[in-house]
Specification:
Elements lengths: L3 H15 L3 E11 L5 E14 L3 E5 H4 L4 E5 L5 E10 L4 E6 L8 E2 L10 E6 L9 E16 L2 E9 L11 E3 L4 E7 L9 E5 H14 L5 E2 L2 E5 L2 H7 L7 E6 L4 H4 L7 E5 L2 E2 L3 H9 L6 E8 L2 E8 L1 E2 L2
Parallel strand pairs: 7-12
Antiparallel strand pairs: 1-2, 1-4, 2-3, 3-6, 4-5, 5-6, 8-9, 8-11, 9-10, 10-13, 11-12, 12-13, 14-21, 15-16, 16-17, 17-18, 17-19, 19-20
């Protein structure tokens, strides 16, 4: 029999551990009416302190296009926030406030998450004053690919812990009080389910934004199109799915290692490539400097070409 008192205490301790690190992120953006008159629009989201020197992680859409950012700490103090960098593709933004010795959250390991694990979403929904709001649920699914009006988001954590608009940018934590994801409310059709960006993804984004001011992603330097049955029949191609290379960047890894326009990419390091989106997805999950093997069809030959992944300057 489950000891509910012990269970409740574990949840309360986890919340207590991370709550001082949860902040409210207020934003001001300027829009224009029909007569081109400026109209101030305010927004509110959440964030989490990840470094005692003032670094705060939130969602990109919380601060997109803003004129001014204010960060409200758990004790009520309000500070001016500055954007260190953003990454639209993961919906993450890194902010900084001019204050030291802030209570930083402990960042966990999202690779250790399993379906069924208890998670807690913490944030400031709807701009309500007071302590952060907490919702509880389980990890419903992992590695979800979500399509929204903002693009395609991969490797998302799905949970039934409610994530309201004001919770965007707040932490998803485990029962140890470790941050395992960053909540996002960008999915308009989500009813009774929420999504979070894995903290391991966020760690890489943060590292790149601090060191380079942008996120460096693996790149091979080709432009391709999807092959389908009609294209294969019309051009007399040997297969009806894959990625047909139509252009190669002269300074890119693919060109350096011998990929040519007209080559058909069918696999990367043994993983099937049936379209350009799959090619892109496989590459982005790798690291700059990794050696991959690209399988191509060139004429009537199948060729394997090793390539070291670079990045776009």
């Amino acid at each position: 029999m489950v000891n509910m008192s012990s269970w409740d205490e574990s949840i309360a301790k986890a919340v207590e551990k991370v709550s001082p690190s949860v902040v409210a992120v207020g934003s001001l953006r300027i829009a224009h009416d029909y007569f081109l008159q400026p109209i101030p629009i305010t927004g509110l989201g959440s964030g989490v302190i990840i470094d005692g020197n003032g670094y705060i992680l939130t969602n990109y859409h919380v601060v997109e296009g803003v004129e001014r950012i204010e960060v409200a700490l758990s004790g009520g103090r309000v500070l001016r926030g500055e954007i260190v960098g953003v990454d639209r593709r993961t919906d993450l933004a890194l902010l900084k406030v001019n204050m030291k010795n802030l209570p930083a959250a402990i960042l966990g390991d999202s690779l250790k998450l399993k379906v069924g694990h208890i998670v807690l979403a913490i944030g400031n929904p709807f701009g309500l004053l007071g302590e952060p709001t907490v919702t509880i649920g389980v990890v419903s699914a992992l590695k979800r690919t979500i399509k929204s009006e903002r693009g395609v988001f991969e490797d998302m954590i799905q949970t039934d812990a409610h994530i309201n608009p004001g919770n965007s940018g707040g932490p998803l934590i485990n029962l140890n009080g470790e941050v395992v994801g960053i909540n996002t409310a960008i999915i308009p059709f989500a009813q009774g389910i929420g999504f979070a960006i894995p903290i391991n993804t966020a760690k890489k984004v943060v590292n790149d934004l601090i060191n380079y001011g942008r996120v460096l992603r693996p790149w091979i330097g080709i432009q391709g199109v999807d092959i389908n049955e009609k294209m294969a029949e019309y051009y007399g191609l040997p297969i009806s799915k894959g990625c047909l290379v139509i252009d190669v960047a002269p300074n890119g890894p693919a060109g350096y290692y011998g990929i040519q326009p007209g080559d058909i990419i069918t696999a990367i390091s043994g993983r099937e490539v049936d379209c350009t989106e799959k090619l892109k997805s496989i590459i982005e999950r790798m690291n700059i400097g990794d050696i991959i093997e690209i399988t191509i069809i060139r004429g009537d030959k199948i060729v394997n070409i090793p390539i070291e992944l670079g990045y776009l300057e």
